[in-house]
Write a structure and sequence with these properties.
By secondary structure, this protein is of the alpha/beta class. The protein contains 13 helices and 13 strands. The protein binds adenosine-5'-diphosphate (ADP) and magnesium ion.
Length: about 290
């Protein structure tokens, strides 16, 4: 590859907000057979809103005090949605201690001396935290409606449900169809539930979806794809996606992108949305044509 054309290509990319960490990623991108997309914050806006709340016992304000205290320590889009809802009901939150993210699952902390967990229902099963039957029914109904459902437990006892819905970014549908027209296989991997994943996949015309995939597993799936089909690109918003972004042949952090992910490896940063990924692939192909 001639260094000059790669430099020109990288320069042009930078002008439109695409920062290649190294020239070689610009070269590899155009050869991608498969592009794997994260859902939350990548295909969707990542600014979800709380749509439904169910408090098992006690009042809603007390529930949001505790839940808000825990989520104030998380930067996840879901946490931000919960915080927006919590601030409408609570003025001052108690202190959260030993706050800790469970990547791909949820968040935990000690509030008012009580161990509090907020996560997806799958993690509750793993932790053997019992969810009452009527609550389970509510969860199924909300998930079928395409919502992301998180559950809260205080001292390992089920405390309530929060449902959240996210919107597509305006350009996602057209960007995904343009990638597919270029002959690239588009796949979605998400830590979110099957129904929410399917609902977004249907709207964007993606037919390969895997849901309930924790961050480390995303990386493993990418490695399997690399063995089967060659160059694999991973696009994520950076939050929780660091392992997958790092193992991909080109890891693209889109949007805000958490600093952790950006520092964690050979990652390309794109400001904006998936239409920028389409531009980047085109630029890469054009650059490679000039090299030949
Ligand atoms: P995605 O792959 O769609 O970006 P993530 O891997 O970031 O999703 O998160 C997967 C799931 O873990 C979320 O859908 C949610 O159910 C749960 N989760 C993650 N972070 C939090 C949090 N801070 N509070 C509650 N639930 C969370
Ligand atoms: Mg994400």
């Amino acid at each position: 590859a001639t260094p000059t054309s790669v430099m020109v290509g990288s320069g042009r990319a930078a002008q439109v907000g695409i920062l290649f960490k190294e020239g070689k990623f610009l070269e590899v991108l155009g050869k991608a057979t498969t592009i794997v997309l994260d859902k939350t914050g990548t295909i969707t806006k990542g600014e979800p809103q709380v749509t439904d709340t169910y408090v098992h016992d006690g009042n809603e304000r007390a529930f949001f005090e505790i839940v808000g205290a825990v989520e104030s320590a998380s930067g996840h889009p879901i946490a931000n949605a919960i915080m927006r809802a919590a601030r409408q009901r609570v003025v001052k939150f108690p202190q959260a201690n030993q706050a800790e993210a469970i990547p791909g699952y949820g968040m935990q902390a000690t509030v008012n001396g009580q161990q509090t967990l907020i996560s997806n229902p799958t993690y509750f099963m793993e932790q053997k935290i019992h969810i009452p039957r009527d609550a389970k029914r509510m969860i199924t109904k909300l998930e079928r409606a395409g919502k992301t459902v998180v559950v809260a437990a205080i001292q390992s006892r089920f405390a309530g449900i929060i449902a959240i819905a996210d919107e597509l970014k305006p350009s996602s549908c057209s960007a995904i169809s343009r990638l597919r027209k270029m002959g690239i296989d588009v796949m979605m991997l998400t830590g979110d539930n099957q129904a929410a994943a399917q609902s977004i996949a249907r709207k964007t015309g993606i037919n390969k979806v895997q849901a309930n995939v924790p961050p480390q597993r995303k990386a493993e799936i990418i490695q399997t794809l690399q063995k089967k089909r060659g160059k694999v690109v991973m696009v994520g918003d950076g939050i929780n996606d660091a392992p997958a972004l790092t193992v991909a042949d080109v890891g693209i952090a889109i949007g805000t992108g958490s600093d952790i992910a950006i520092e964690s490896g050979d990652i390309t940063v794109i400001k904006g949305d998936l239409s920028k990924v389409v531009e980047a692939v085109k630029l890469s192909k054009a650059t490679m044509t000039n090299i030949k």
